[in-house]
Structures are given as C-alpha cells and as structure tokens.
Amino acid sequence: xxxxxxxxxxxxxxxxxxxxxxxxxxxxxxxxxxxxxxxxxxxxxxxxxxxxxxxxxxxxxxxxxxxxxxxxxxxxxxxxxxxxxxxxxxxxxxxxxxxxxxxxxxxxxxxxxxxxxxxxxxxxxxxxxxxxxxxxxxxxxxxxxxxxxxxxxxxxxxxxxxxxxxxxxxxxxxxxxxxxxxxxxxxxxxxxxxxxxxxxxxxxxxx
Length: 207
Known about the structure:
This protein is mainly alpha-helical. It has eleven helices and two strands; from the N terminus they run H-H-E-E-H-H-H-H-H-H-H-H-H. The chain has a two-stranded antiparallel sheet with strand order 1-2. A hairpin with a 5-residue loop joins strand 1 (22-27) and strand 2 (33-37).
C-alpha cells in the first residue's frame, strides 16, 4: 500500500500532522497521501480550570480564605498538578499570587509570583503583580526593575507600556529620581496622545 509505505518513511511528519489536526485522505496520482484538516472533538473542561474559576470568584467577592483554600486543592493534588502544562501551572501560581496580594499576605504572594515567573518564558503578568507587591512592601527599587522588565518583554503592547511607564514615573519621583521619573511620564503622555489608550490597571487581569 503506497500510503502506508509513505507514512512509514515519514514518521516524524505523521506526528507533526497529528499535532496540527491533519489525517491522511485520498492518494494523488504519484501515490502520495493528501492530507485533510479536521477539528478534534473538545473534551470536558479540566478539573483544575474549574477549581481556579471558583477560586477567582471567591477572591472577587473578597472571600480570600476560601479562594486560597480552593487554590490549594490544585497544588495539594499531586496527580492533578503533574498533569497540568507549564502554562496551566503558570496560571495557577499567578492566580494564587494575586489572591495573596489582595489579602495583603505579601511574603507569600511574592514567593508564589516568583514561582509563576519561573514557569513562563515571558511572564509579564507575573512581573506586573510582583512590581505591585514590591511597591506595597516599600521595595521601590525592585519594583522599578520589574516594571522595566515589563517594558522590555512587551515592546509592542501599548497597554502594558502605558501602565509600566506611568507606574515607573511615579515610583522614580517618589524615590527621588525626579528627572528620570519625568522622562517616563513624558513617554507615557506621548503614548497616550498616539492612541495607546487605557489607564493603568490594578494588575488583576490575565495577559
């Protein structure tokens, strides 16, 4: 069978095609299989996502103890946690970190957010929350570094840039670096005038 022979010769392509939702269809005149795309059926929502949704709802309602306990259902279940992707784990750590931040548990929030940052190649949202945490702890120099990291990681994201520039400017002025602070605030104003839009958020939205 020409199709079977061809697939045996190209096992790596078979894996690639399976990954991208492609299955062999008809065979062309040269004996090469023609591939057709298909949409794989969607399975049920993962349990960890349901748990995190409930945790976020509790945090939004100000029920921080219940929110933290809900997050712990994910972190304390070794089977569930080990079957999550790195991105899913990033979401989980980020969500818990923000909840701890809202609950003014800064030390735990900081540790959890650093754990989140280690799970993502460009952890902009984790850095934003960490910067807010450092600011609330009075660690302004560290907060400044984190906001600068956000600028570096999101060169084309106007929303992130605007928030980072505004917060950087304010922090630097409070810290005593008035000229540098004014420089960042001026850049924020220019971005706003160019249609950057939106003000600084509270760091609670997902990226």
